[in-house]
Amino acid sequence: MRLWAQVTIALSVLLLQHRADAACNRPDLVFVVPPDGASAVPPNAKLFARYRSNAAYTGEDITLSGAGGEQVLSGEWSEAETLLSVTPVELLPGEQYSVEWPRLRGVNSGSLGKGASVEFTVGSALDEAPPEFEGLSGISWDVDRERDDCTDSLEDRYLFDLELGDASDDGGRESLMVVVFQTKGPNVDESAPEPIGVQRIPSPGSRLRVERTLGDGEGDVCFAAVARDLTGKVSASGAKEVCTETVAPPFFEGCSAAPRPPAGGVAALFALVLGALVCRRGRR
User: Fold this and answer.
1) Which of 77, 97, 122 is the last residue of a domain?
2) Cα–Cα distance, 243 to 236 (Å, whole number)
3) How many CA atoms lie within 13 A of 81 on its CB side?
4) Per residue in 114-164, pLDDT tens?
5) pTM over 0.90
6) Is residue 58 part of a domain?
7) Are strands 154-164 and 167-168 parallel, antiparallel or unpaired?
8) Would residue 11 count as lying in a domain?
9) Whole-angstrom distance, CA of residue 98 vs CA of residue 118
10) Domain count of the chain?
11) Domain of 140?
């Protein structure tokens, strides 16, 4: 292979690595409810945005634009769920609104994540009843081994795919959130289920995935879930569990499972190729 081609490859790999390093700790927005394009949003709805677990809210403005002009609002922050919420002064039926969710910084870091701009239309009916949700209906599991782009270390996790029963709400199914609890496991007190995440409800027929460490997910494990609407009301589905038994996976590294070279190796490759190119030019 020509030296210029080797240099090009090395530079490309190094650039991709730098991009991964820049994104790995970024406290991006994960989802919003109501989602972009939602219709018939209840006039008494709150607005929610979930960020990655390393995000911190320090009073950044949330801008709501629509009928009556622009509202600059302060949000309420749930550190446990990294969930930002805001209560509009007034949502008028039949009107379209846009909300600008802020970019947040990471905990103990200056990295700035992604925000979002979302539009929705308000309906005429108030959200007055809690969601109807049949709870979890099935579970399957697997083990995933990935290299963490931030620490360059291998991490092993259990992946649990949870099947959901039917769900509905007078404020619209698409704006529901699902709060998942682990009700049984190596580190769970069965009298105090552990909340392990909140996600926007997936489309009908889709599964919801949660991750647990090997220490939290090995052996007999159970999960339950409730649906939560735009006014904070929750379904009566928390008593319905799904359970499974996992085993500790044996790990080995072969050609297909070998970890990628660390970032330092990429830099060393670049330096080596560049040095060879300089030496070759010096001989001419």
Assistant:
1) 122
2) 19
3) 20
4) 999 999 999 999 999 999 999 999 999 999 987 766 666 778 999 999 999
5) no
6) yes
7) unpaired
8) no
9) 5
10) 2
11) 132-246
